[in-house]
Amino acid sequence: MDQNKIPQATAKRLPLYYRFLNNLNQQGKKRVSSKELSEAVKVDSATIRRDFSYFGALGKKGYGYNVEYLLGFFRSTLDQHEVTEVALIGVGNLGTAFLHYNFMKNNNIRITTAFDADTEKVGTDIGGVPVYDIHHLEEKLDDIKVAILTVPAVEAQVITDKLVEKGISGILNFTPARISVPKHIRVHHIDLAVELQALVYFLKHYSLDKPE
Amino acid sequence: MDQNKIPQATAKRLPLYYRFLNNLNQQGKKRVSSKELSEAVKVDSATIRRDFSYFGALGKKGYGYNVEYLLGFFRSTLDQHEVTEVALIGVGNLGTAFLHYNFMKNNNIRITTAFDADTEKVGTDIGGVPVYDIHHLEEKLDDIKVAILTVPAVEAQVITDKLVEKGISGILNFTPARISVPKHIRVHHIDLAVELQALVYFLKHYSLDKPE
DNA sequence: ACTGAATTGTGAAAAATATCACGACTTATT
DNA sequence: AATAAGTCGTGATATTTTTCACAATTCAGT
Ligand SMILES: NC(=O)c1ccc[n+]([C@@H]2O[C@H](COP(=O)([O-])OP(=O)(O)OC[C@H]3O[C@@H](n4cnc5c(N)ncnc54)[C@H](O)[C@@H]3O)[C@@H](O)[C@H]2O)c1
Ligand SMILES: NC(=O)c1ccc[n+]([C@@H]2O[C@H](COP(=O)([O-])OP(=O)(O)OC[C@H]3O[C@@H](n4cnc5c(N)ncnc54)[C@H](O)[C@@H]3O)[C@@H](O)[C@H]2O)c1
């Protein structure tokens, strides 16, 4: 939209910076250097300065960054002033864990609606979130733009198609299935089994190398 | 160790390839082209061919790849012939979900041991995995080299230090804390709140751009 | 055997990301 | 006021990753 020039790698680090700035602010810290931040978030200090620089000159030479100012800046950049509502599809092991988690703590994101096919689960409240029947997706999804997908892999594509039809913009997909969507819709995959296996692979083949 | 030349980006995709090859094999498919694979895993076909090429010439020009051969090759490359034992620390919402999940299905990885501080949980079996008291980490960790960390963020560093002392090689860290470890130890972070927030950020600022 | 369609493996180019290194500026101290 | 220590912002460079594009090869059909 507005800042199409910001590299994706940078954009992915912004929420991380935001969280640590929040911590610092709560600890009453007034200023912070890229070096300090670097040690906290394990990102090279030059990378941090470069990342920040895409948004202009946010710091002061010889001084560092003013925590409060930087935090305020990122709050608006990350749209932390408004709550983003998210739907969760598939209230199983993983889905239930997410429903119990409070994403509001650091991020203004709230899972407001959940769906499942299991009649045992439909009608219940989990972590304060109502669970609706997946067949009522049409009516209950409202204008929610982001969905978390934690259904069995075989169901992933069918449900995705429904979400797309209903006008979803982004999907956080935890199933191992690589879902197909029209290209204006954004899908991020978090594939836990792959992550675990990749870690094991790195251990066996890259020992003593620098960590990621 | 042996193949230090393989790019990290490639290494991270290997488990994904492996899983899809497994699917194809189970479906009785005998051959596959990089183009087909590309559509299934959503990775550019040239990238797939390049990835495979680091391991030598695995395919045949004009034909594609033999599924069974490729699968066998990756099985040994990814050490799928031997089971990797993993410990899980923190049997809460997220930890419990993982204990119920069968990582053996596609990957020869098994969570064999879990630890928690809560006396209610200690002594129970969850998903067939015994939960030990965190104070018995010393005795019960044995020679497990990989740990999944799903404890509260404030506990993350303390427990990490214990794991390091006990000789762990890799940690899959789900806490928002950025833990410090000696540099021969590998840590992969999966930061769910960051992932969700990053997705939201992309939706607001990169609409209509190509998905990741 | 020949032809045409399919597909690999890879050199070369492009794009994306990370890091180095330093001039310019700020603050604190004497 | 001068000096020293600290730190940013960024041009330049290095590294990593992706993509293009095509010669070489294989296969299937005639
Ligand atoms: N649990 C883990 O640790 C883990 C790890 C890696 C990957 N995953 C993946 O995450 C996904 C969820 O895993 P899980 O362990 O929570 O599975 P689960 O079986 O516990 O939960 C799946 C839920 O989806 C519901 N469901 C089934 N069909 C549905 C439909 N058509 N519409 C709506 N809901 C439907 C089920 O009723 C169930 O509640 C799976 O794809 C799994 O492969 C899970
Ligand atoms: N649940 C989610 O959806 C979610 C999302 C994002 C991040 N996280 C992060 O994942 C981690 C786990 O989340 P959760 O929701 O499962 O939390 P949880 O509170 O449900 O579970 C934490 C578990 O760790 C145990 N524990 C506490 N101190 C311990 C210690 N010293 N040694 C061993 N065990 C100890 C607790 O008894 C509890 O069982 C947290 O750091 C959280 O921030 C969770």
Q: What is this structure, in a nutshell?
A:
Chains A, B: InterPro entries: CoA-bd, NAD(P)-bd_dom_sf, Rex_bacilli-type, Rex_DNA-bd_C_dom, Tscrpt_rep_Rex, WH-like_DNA-bd_sf, WH_DNA-bd_sf. 2 copies of one chain form a homodimer. Chain A is an alpha/beta fold and about 210 residues long.
Break the fold down into its secondary structure elements and pairings.
2 copies of one chain form a homodimer.
Chain A: H1 8-26, E1 31-32, H2 34-41, H3 45-53, E2 65-66, H4 67-77, E3 84-89, H5 93-99, E4 109-116, E5 125-126, E6 129-133, H6 137-140, E7 146-149, H7 153-165, E8 170-173, E9 186-189, H8 192-205
Parallel strand pairs in A: 3-4, 3-7, 4-6, 7-8, 8-9
Antiparallel strand pairs in A: 1-2, 5-6
Chain A binds a DNA duplex (30 and 30 nucleotides) through α1 and α3.
Any overview of this molecule?
Two copies of one chain form a homodimer. Chain A has helices at residues 8-26, 34-41, 45-53, 67-77, 93-99, 137-140, 153-165, 192-205, and strands at residues 31-32, 65-66, 84-89, 109-116, 125-126, 129-133, 146-149, 170-173, 186-189. With 212 residues, the first copy, chain A, is an alpha/beta fold. Chain A folds into two domains: 3-76, Arc Repressor Mutant, subunit A, CATH 1.10.10; 84-194, NAD(P)-binding Rossmann-like Domain (Rossmann fold). Chain A has a seven-stranded mixed sheet. A two-stranded antiparallel ribbon of chain A has the order 1-2. In chain A, α1 crosses α4 (67-77) and α2 crosses α3 (45-53). The mean pLDDT of chain A is 93. Chains A and B meet through α1, α5, β9 and α8 of A and α1, α5, β9 and α8 of B. The structure holds nicotinamide-adenine-dinucleotide (2 copies). The structure holds a DNA duplex (30 and 30 nucleotides). Chains A, B: This is Redox-sensing transcriptional repressor Rex. Chains A, B: Its main location: cytoplasm.
